[in-house]
Write a structure and sequence with these properties.
heterodimer; A: 102 residues; mainly alpha; 4 helices; B: 236 residues; alpha/beta; seven-stranded parallel beta sheet; two-stranded antiparallel ribbon; 6 helices; disordered C terminus
Amino acid sequence: MSTPANQRKLDVVEELAQLAEKSGMTMIELALAWAINHPGVTSAIIGPRTMEQLQAQLPSVRVTLDTEILDRVDELVAPGVTLNADDDSYGAAELTPQARRR
Amino acid sequence: MEYRLLGRTGVSVSPLCLGTMMFGPWGNDDRADAIRVIHRALDAGINFVDTADVYSGGVSEEIPGEALEGCRDDVVLATKFFMPMNDRPNHSGGSRKWILQEAENSLRRLKTDYIDLYQVHRPSATTDVEETLGALTDLVRQGKVRYIGSSSYPASQIVEAQWVSRERNLARFVTEQPPYSILVRSIEEDVLPTVQRYGMGALVYSPLSGGWLTGRWRRAPPARPRQLHVRVPAST
């Protein structure tokens, strides 16, 4: 949590929380609506553990995001950018120690 | 619920797909409660359910298997193979030997005789994609699997798999399952455009970035006047 990448994520999450609040939605609704809004995305996989979590996620299918919200998200995290490279699995099989001459 | 076409398959799915990784010992170990959550999702219009053999050692397949008895055909049921199920050699990966064995295990745990979408959990550095596609094609021809897909494939391997399918007349991956959230946007550059170019569906995982986007993790709020009194019930 103390790494610079995670600190940056905490800052962004704070801004996203404020954006969601200002836009009259929860951060969960903002995040899910944003994911299923991309023309290349068919579905977003939710992973609720409890009924309460599911109930908080379902309303996202009815949320529309205006250009102002989308622009603000792009300002916080630019298109194509992953804030912490550890958060996706790309390269896991390629950037092994042996492949790095070790 | 608005439904969307899953790539060019002609199958319609809900924009939210219910992942069951949190049902079982890894998360909610109360089966009855987990089944209630699944039924609530179906009642809300979700018709797309995704799991994997490896989650909770198979329990995450058993729970939806139980929940979907009686409505199995109305759901697009997706699962995966590839991750090690134990320490034994050949109980993981993309070999024909393991795929044909593990598909039977998944069918049994899911209490069904077909899987709608059978996905390779990760690309393999050691197995020819032709071997994997060949075994998956046989499962499709046997009627045990309807469609096949990949997960966490980089764009180059998505392209390679499409070409091998075409060249060898094998079933092709019709979906890809990549990670995607506001905090994890790398697929926008290459993976998503490639998926779109091949008319594939994309079911994205961790759209809440493992809980980062739930509002649960926040920096301490700025100092505010303490208002403890509002939390104390009025004395009677």
